[in-house]
Automatic annotation (TrEMBL):
Keywords: Membrane, Transmembrane, Transmembrane helix. It comes from Nocardiopsis ansamitocini. The chain crosses the membrane at residues 20-44, 90-110, 131-157, 169-189. It comes from the Bacteria. This is DUF2975 domain-containing protein.
Length: 203
């Protein structure tokens, strides 16, 4: 049983929310795999799509009168494989599944950090180490997932386009910023722990 303190009374429900989110994302990851497998066996209609530049699609048109004068379609469009192979299904499911798994693992690490804070307090070595682990995992996981998405998009576009490959890569700024922020908090906790130890040593 965790001691009842002001921070624990606020942290306990937040930890419960983190645990619930971890369970939900894990279930969604498994469901995504199951849907892909069922589609491969013909049990479900689960199309596979790849996003390419609209400039590569011949004959792209809009409804008459839908666009104002001087405006043309731009950006990206989704191409759908009407009868995807197992390889295409695997490539299509890889990005979403890995994304959900990374989120699940991150939430599990955060849950462990919250548990350590409830047991021992916020300014402890275990909390600092857990936050540092979460920050590094978030940064590296975001970069790895971004590269994985690029590779799977290139592979699928090569099978969807007769003219070659198509993919765009963007820096995952939001998760990178969150990861760096967690690393900063971990350093603050470590510094606070060091100051407390110094004060205790002088008493």
């Amino acid at each position: 049983m965790f001691p009842e303190t002001p921070i624990n009374s606020r942290l306990r429900p937040l930890r419960g929310l983190v645990q619930a989110l971890a369970l939900i994302t894990g279930i969604f990851a498994v469901a995504t795999v199951v849907v892909a497998l069922c589609g491969g066996f013909g049990l479900l209609d689960s199309p596979v799509a790849v996003r390419v530049s609209s400039s590569l699609v011949d004959g792209l048109a809009t409804a008459p009168g839908a666009l104002a004068t001087g405006v043309a379609p731009g950006g990206d469009v989704d191409l759908v494989f009407t009868d995807p192979t197992w390889t295409q299904r695997l490539l299509g499911a890889t990005g979403p599944v890995v994304s959900l798994l990374l989120l699940t693992v991150g939430l599990i690490i955060l849950n462990r950090v919250a548990g350590a804070a409830l047991r021992e307090g916020a300014f402890t070595e275990q909390v600092s180490r857990g936050l540092r682990t979460l920050g590094v995992f978030t940064v590296l996981g975001a970069l790895a997932h971004s590269v994985l998405e690029l590779v799977t998009t290139l592979a699928l576009s090569a099978q969807a386009l007769a003219s070659g490959l198509s993919a765009s890569w963007s820096v995952p700024l939001l998760p990178l910023t969150c990861g760096l922020g967690v690393l900063a908090v971990a350093e603050i906790v470590r510094h606070g722990l060091s100051m407390r130890e110094d004060l205790e040593g002088t008493v």
